[in-house]
Amino acid sequence: MRRKPIDSNKQRVRGRIRVVRFVTFLLFLVLLSRLFYWQIIEGESLRAVAESQYVSIMKSFGSRGKILTSDGYPLVTNQDVYTIFVEPKDLKISSTELSKILSPYLAQSTLAQESTDEAGLKIMQNEWEDTIHQRLASNLQWISLKKKLPRNIKEEIEKLKISGVGFDREEMRYYPESSMSAQLLGFVGSDARGEEQGYFGIEGYFDRELRGKTGVIKQEKDAAGLPIAIGEFDFIHSRNGRDITLTIRRDLQYMLEEKLKAGMEKYGSVTAEAVIMDPKTGEILAMASFPSYDPLFYYKFDQQNYKQPLASDLYEPGSTMKILTVAAGIDAGVIEPDTVCDTCSGPREISGYTIKTWNNEYNPNSTVTEGLIHSDNTVMIFVAEKLPIPTFVDYLQKFGLDTKTNIELQEEATAPFREKWKELDIATASFGQGIAINGMQMLQVAQVIANDGELVKPRLVKEVIEDGKKAIETKTEVVRQVIKEETAEKVTSMMEQSALHGDAQWAVPKGYRIAGKTGTAQIPVAGHYDEEKTVASFVGFAPAENPRFVMLVKLREPQSSQWGSETAAPLWFEIAKELFIRLQISPDHSER
Amino acid sequence: MTDFIFRDQQVSVMRQMYVLFTVISLIALVIVNIFISGRMVSTGTEMRSIERAQVQLELEQKSLQAKLAEKQSLQHIKEEAKQLGYIPVSSVLHARQDVSVALR
Q: What integer pLDDT is reported at residue A207 of this predicted model?
C-alpha cells in the first residue's frame, strides 16, 4: 500500500522526462531547420554580404593598343581624362557656391575641346553655372557633371579640396600629329552598349586586336578598408591591347599630306587622293586623301569623310587602264610595242556606238607605243580586239580587278565583276570606261608592271606588338605572277615614253627615269557621262630601271583644267621630287 | 605521514607552476597577436601607399610619353624650325662618285 505513491511519482517524473525529451527534440528540430535555412537556403547571399564587408573587388582596365608609324612613333596613343562627379551628402557648401566655383574650370575645358574663341568663355561659364545648379537639384546620390576633363584642369580643381567632389579616371584616344592620317587610322566611338568600338581604317579593321581586356582584383581588407597582406587574394589580370606598327613612313606621310593639300587648292579639285607603295614588298609608305577630318572630334565632321576613299570609292579609271590593256596584249603575244594599228584612222563603230579619241584627232598607222603616248582610245580597242574576250577578262582578273586587294582597311569596297562581257564592254574597258575599280586596285596594276609582273598583296601593317614583344610580323605576300617579266619590261619602257613624251612632259623631273600614265575619266551622272566633271589621275613608278616606289595621284573634278596631264601629273612629279630626296634616289645621268 | 604532506606540497607547487605557465603563455600569445595585427595593419597601409604610388607613376609616365610625342610631332618640329630661321631646301645637288670634286 505504501509503494503506490512512489510509483505514481516515478511515473510522473518519467512523463516529465518524456515531455522534456520531446520539447528538446522539437527545439533541436527547429534549430536544425533554422540552421538549414541560414546555411543552405540563405547561405549564398549571406556569404556574399559578409564577403562584401571584408573583401574589396576592383576592376582594372587594359589600355587600348597604340598605332605606330614604321619608326615607332605613336600616331595614336591614349591619354587620361576624368569624369567629375558630386556626392551631395558629402557637400559642405551650397550648390550655388559650388556652381560658381566649378563653372570657370568646366568652361575652360569645354573651350579647349571645342576650339571656341575666348569671347565664348563668359557665355559658356554662365551655361555651366546653370547646368551644375540644375543637376544638383536632383535627389541622386551621385551626380556626374562633366566627362573627359583634362588632367591639368582636374588637378586644379583638386587643389581646391572641395568635399563631396570626386573624379573617375578613364582613357581616351590622343593624336600627337593631330589629324594626320585620319582616314587611314579611323576613330574610336561607342557601340550600342556604350563600350569603346573602333570604326573605319585601322581602328575598325583591328578593333579586336587593339582592345584592352578588363581584369578583376579580389582582396581581403581590414576594418579600415586597407588590404590585408596575408588575406585572401585573387585576380584576373587586365591586359593592354596590342600595339600595331604600320608600314607608313611618318616623313613621307607628312610630306604627302602637305603636297596634296596644296595641290587640291592649286587645281581647285573637290577631293585629292594619293598613295605611295613599295612595289617589291607591297608596303604602303604613305596614303592620304582630302577632305579629311579630326578623329578626336569625328562627330563634328561629315560622315562622308570617315572612309579612306582610295579603298572605298569606286571610279572609272580612264586612260590609266591602258597600261593593263597593252600589258595583256604583249603578254598574250598578240601585239608588240611597235605593232602598227590599222584601224585607228577614225572613230570606231562598235555595237551601234561610236567611240572617239579624247581630242577627236586620229593618227593612222600609229604604233601601240604611240597610242599609249597619245592616249589613243582607238589603239586600245585595236589591242583588245586582238585578244579573245575570255583572255582579256582573264587578264582583268589576274590583275586583281575582280576582288578586293585585302588591304587592312575596314571600308574597302569593290564593284561587282561583270559576268558576261560583250564586245562593247571589252572595247570601253580597254581605255578605262564602263569598269569601276578602287584606287588601290589601280595602284596594284602599276605595281605588277613595276615588280617584273608579280602581284604582291598591299599591306599597311608591319608588325603587331604584345606586352612590348613582337607577336606577329607581316611578310611580303606574293599573290601570283600576272604577266611575264619581259612583258613588264616592255610595258615599263612604253610607260617611260608616255611620261617623257606625253602631255605632262614639261613637269617630268630631270635626270630620273619615270614610268607613268595619265588618266582623265568622265564621271557618270544619271545614265550619261558629265562633260565637265572628271577624275584626273596619274599612276606611275620610279626609277624605271629599279622601281623604289609606285604612286597613284587622283583629283576629283579639278577646276583649273579637267585633264590629268595638267593637274594630277604635275602634282605626281612634284611629290616624286620629294620622294627622290627622302628615299635617297640619285639622278641617273644616262637619260633615254 | 610527513611523506604525504611533502607530496601534497609538491603537487600544489606543480599546479601553481602550470597555472603560471598557462597565464604567461596566454599573455605572450596576446602580445604576439597584437604585434602581428599591428604589423598587418601597417603592411596594409604600406601596400595601399605603394599601390597609389604605382598608379601615380604610371599616370605620370603616360603623361610624359604624350608630351614627348607632342614635342616630336613633325608639325611641332616644323614650327620650331621656322622660329629658328630654317627655310626649306630650294635645290638639291647630287655629287657623282665617278667625277672628282677637287679638280685642281
A: 93
Residue to substitute from A177, A261, A574, interface B, most B β-carbons within 10 A? A177
Percent of chain A with pLDDT over 70: 97
End-to-end Cα spacing for chain B: 137
Do A131 and A272 share a domain, yes or no? no
Shared domain for A346 and A436, answered yes or no, is yes
Partner-chain residue, chosen from A74, A80, A511, that has the shortest CB–CB distance to B59: A80
Do residue B40 and residue A581 have CB atoms under 8 angstroms apart?
no
What percent helix, strand, coil does chain A show, rounded to 5? 40, 25, 35
Nearest to A136 by CA among A85, A78, A188: A85
Q: Nearest by CB to B47, which of A229, A251, A589?
A: A229
Inside any domain, residue A213? no
Q: What is the ipTM of this complex?
A: 0.73
Tell me, yes or no, whether A130 and A273 share the same domain. Answer: no
For the entire predicted model, the pTM comes to 0.82
Q: Name residues 167-196 of chain A within 8 A of B (Cβ).
A: 174, 176-178, 180
**Structural domain harbouring A114:** 81-172
State the residue for C-alpha cell 587622293: A273
Q: For residue A445, which of A392, A385, A405 has the smallest C-alpha distance?
A: A405
What are residue A459's DSSP bridge partners? A283
Q: What is the pLDDT of residue A547?
A: 96
Phi-psi label, residue B16: left if phi above 0, alpha if psi -120 to 50, beta otherwise: alpha
Look up the CATH number of the domain holding residue A492. Answer: 3.40.710.10
Q: Is residue A189 part of a domain?
A: no
DSSP A339: P
For A106, residues 6+ apart whose C-beta sits below 8 A from its C-beta are A84, A128, A132, A145, A146, A149
Examine residue A66 and state whether it is found in any structural domain, yes or no.
no
Domain boundaries, chain B: 7-68
Within 13 Å and on the Cβ side, how many CA atoms surround A230? 7
pLDDT in tens, B52-98: 899 889 888 888 988 899 899 999 999 999 999 999 888 888 777 77
Residues A399 and A282 in one domain: yes
Which of B37, B55, B62, B76 best probes binding to A when mutated, by most A CB atoms within 10 angstroms?
Answer: B62
Contact partners, residue B63, CB within 8 Å, separation at least 6: A79, A80, A151
**Chosen domain end from A172, A204, A228:** A172
Burial B21-39 (b: 16+ CB within 10 A, else e): eeeeeeeeeeeeeeeeeee
Partners of residue A227 in chain B, C-beta under 8 Å:
44, 47-48, 51
Q: What's the gap in Å between the CA of A287 and the closest CA on chain B?
A: 17
Element (H, E) at A60: strand A55-60
User: How many CB atoms sit inside 10 A of residue A370's CB?
Assistant: 21
In whole angstroms, give the CA distance from residue A495 to residue A324.
11
Does A317 share its domain with A403?
A: yes
Q: A251 vs B74: CB contact, 8 Å cut-off? A: yes
Q: Residue A109 has which C-alpha cell?
A: 575645358
Q: Is the pLDDT of residue B103 over 60?
A: no
Q: How many domains does chain A have?
A: 2
Same-domain pairing of A407 and A533: yes
Q: Which residues have C-beta within 8 Å of that of residue A310, sequence separation ≥ 6?
A: A273, A275, A287, A289, A438, A439, A440, A443, A552, A554
> How far off is chain A from B18, nearest CA to CA, in Å?
34
Give the residue from A577, A582, A536, A568 showing the smallest Cα distance to A263.
A568
